[in-house]
Structure formats: structure tokens, C-alpha cells
TrEMBL record:
Signal peptide: none annotated. This is Permease. The chain crosses the membrane at residues 25-48, 68-90, 102-123, 129-150, 236-260, 266-283, 295-316. Belongs to the UPF0718 family. The lineage of its organism: Bacteria, Bacillati, Bacillota, Negativicutes, Selenomonadales. It is found in: Cell membrane. GO terms for cellular component: plasma membrane. It holds the Pfam family ArsP_1. It is a multi-pass membrane protein. PANTHER family: UPF0718 PROTEIN YCGR. Keywords: Cell membrane, Membrane, Transmembrane, Transmembrane helix. InterPro entries: DUF318 (IPR005524), UPF0718 (IPR052923).
Length: 319
């Protein structure tokens, strides 16, 4: 009897130990691969924040609403900003006269349609160009359609009045609400850049580690059969990955590595939905949007993005 109990205990211990090792391997592989791209993203974002004014972006956007929406889709190529810093920038652009639909289109597209995120996605999916093009193309389509829909019914700035703003922000973008004076010296701007990049790196690194932990844990704790049955359903898998993306709030430069860890279990459409919906609408961005824009507008915007992302992902699953 004692020998049987000892054998069972040894088997359970060995099994748990193997699970722990697998968890650490998956977690470290995601984090180590993603950190260089996260670092690159926050450095570029900090440089743009300190050396490029909103006037530069505003001058590139035409006055025509329709044309400005199309141009805004591609500005991310020139201004590869992280999604965590977009809301305060968009608010300033709208106050300076940029049309609301164009500003929102820029906010949705820029964190995804940029060289850093494209490189990260290619690296995460082992240079699978098809996945990269799907992500970029879907992001452009969702951002463009959202801008055109907003242009048809959203009138005015939709910003909260000054009395409704309490002079604070949420998350890693609080430092970006303060515009840097154009007269500051190169040394001062360089110091600000280093400070902003460090602040944003550690703030977003926290979300990356949490997301990687949840992703690793789900693959270890959930039986393979259940994970595959959820992930291979063409509709249910999309909803699961979009909810996952919303709550873990991972930076757009690192989310591809988490998505790639599910590539053997989930449909391609659900992985694309994860990489599109998260940078556009996630938990941290919702708080900043609600702080900046009217609640009704934020609800409409969120609903539009959910519908467009899920529809695009469903089409991808049935290609």
C-alpha cells in the first residue's frame, strides 16, 4: 500500500514538475522574443513625442473629411506610435482642427500599420508574409470603415468639456499629456525622450508579462482537446481571442508573439482578430477614451470596431 501511494505521489510530482518547466519555457520564449520589439516601439514613440509636434501630423491631413480619412490610414507608416499613447495625441489633434473621423482613423490604424509592428509580426510568425499582410490589410480595412461610418453620423468634436476633465490620465500615457515646449534644447528633449521611453517600457512590459503568463498558463492548464475544440470553432474562437485581447491590454509591438503561441490551437481569423482588436480597443484604452470622449460616442466606436473586427475575422476563417 505504501509503495502504491509513493508511486502515485512520485507520478503527480513528476507531472506537475513537467508542467512547471513547460510553463517557464513558453513564458520566457514569448517575453524574450517580444521585449526587443517592445523596446524599439517605446523608443520610437518617445522620440516622436519629443521631436515631432502634432502640427506636423495635422499639416499632413487634408481638410476634406473623406480624403483625410484615407490619408490617416497610412500615417502610421511615418509615425509608428504605440497604441497606449494615442488617445491624448488624438485629443490634441482634434482640438487643433483635425476632423474627428480622420483622428479616430489615425488612432486605430497607426499602432498596427507601422514598420515596427510589421517586423514584430513577421518575426513572431516565422516570416509568414501572409499573416503579416492579413494583419495590416484587416487593420486598414477596419480603420477606414470606422472612419467612414463616423463621418456619416458623428458630428462635432465629441470631446468632453473642460469641466468634465479632471486633469489626469490613466496608465502609461500620463506623461504624454504634457506637450514639450518647442524651444527646449536638444539635451532637454533627449533627457525627456529617455525618461518617457523608460516609463513606457516598464509600464507596457508589465502588461506583456501578464499577457504572456495568461497565454502560457492557458496552454498548460487547459487540456489540449478542450483548447483545440474552442480554437477550431470558426465563430467561438474569434470571441474568445477578442475578449482575451481586451483584458490583457498588450502593446501592439508584442501581441503577435502571444498570438503566435496559440497558432497551433486557434483559427487564423481569431489570431488576426486578437492582433487587430487589442491595439484598437482594450481595457486601458477604454478608460482613456471614456476620460476624453463622451460616453455615448465611446460606446458607438467600440461597437463598430467589435462588429468590423469579428466580421473580418469570420471572413478570414472561411477563405
Amino acid at each position: 500500500m505504501e509503495d502504491a501511494i509513493a508511486t502515485i505521489a512520485a507520478a503527480v510530482w513528476t507531472d506537475n514538475w513537467n508542467h512547471m518547466i513547460n510553463f517557464k519555457v513558453i513564458l520566457l520564449s514569448i517575453v524574450i522574443e517580444a521585449f526587443p520589439f517592445l523596446l524599439m516601439s517605446v523608443i520610437v514613440s518617445a522620440l516622436l513625442n519629443n521631436f515631432v509636434s502634432e502640427n506636423t501630423i495635422r499639416n499632413l491631413i487634408p481638410k476634406s473629411n473623406i480624403l483625410s480619412i484615407f490619408i490617416a490610414c497610412f500615417l502610421g507608416i511615418l509615425f509608428p506610435l504605440c497604441d497606449c499613447g494615442m488617445v491624448p495625441i488624438i485629443r490634441r489633434l482634434i482640438l487643433k482642427g483635425v476632423p474627428l473621423p480622420a483622428a479616430i482613423t489615425f488612432m486605430l490604424a497607426a499602432p498596427i500599420v507601422n514598420p515596427v509592428v510589421s517586423a514584430a509580426t513577421a518575426f513572431a510568425f516565422q516570416n509568414n508574409l501572409y499573416v503579416v499582410l492579413l494583419r495590416l490589410g484587416t487593420a486598414l480595412a477596419v480603420a477606414l470603415c470606422t472612419g467612414l461610418l463616423l463621418n456619416s453620423f458623428a458630428k462635432g468634436r465629441q470631446l468632453k468639456s473642460p469641466s468634465q476633465l479632471h486633469g489626469h490620465s490613466h496608465g502609461c500615457c500620463q506623461h504624454m499629456l504634457t506637450s514639450h515646449h518647442p524651444g527646449h534644447s536638444l539635451l532637454h528633449r533627449s533627457i525627456n525622450t529617455l525618461r518617457d521611453a523608460c516609463h513606457e517600457f516598464f509600464e507596457m512590459g508589465k502588461y506583456l508579462v501578464i499577457g504572456a503568463m495568461l497565454g502560457s498558463l492557458s496552454q498548460i492548464a487547459i487540456p489540449r482537446e478542450i483548447l483545440v475544440s474552442m480554437g477550431q470553432d470558426s465563430s467561438f474562437s474569434i470571441g474568445v481571442m477578442m475578449v482575451f485581447a481586451f483584458f490583457i491590454s498588450v502593446c501592439s509591438a508584442a501581441d503577435a508573439f502571444i498570438a503566435a503561441s496559440f497558432s497551433s490551437s486557434f483559427t487564423l481569423g481569431s489570431l488576426v482578430a486578437f492582433m487587430i482588436f487589442g491595439p484598437m480597443i482594450d481595457l486601458k484604452n477604454i478608460f482613456m477614451l471614456l476620460h476624453t470622449f463622451r460616453t455615448k460616442f465611446v460606446c458607438c466606436l467600440t461597437l463598430i470596431v467589435i462588429m468590423l473586427c469579428s466580421s473580418a475575422a469570420y471572413l478570414i476563417n472561411h477563405l
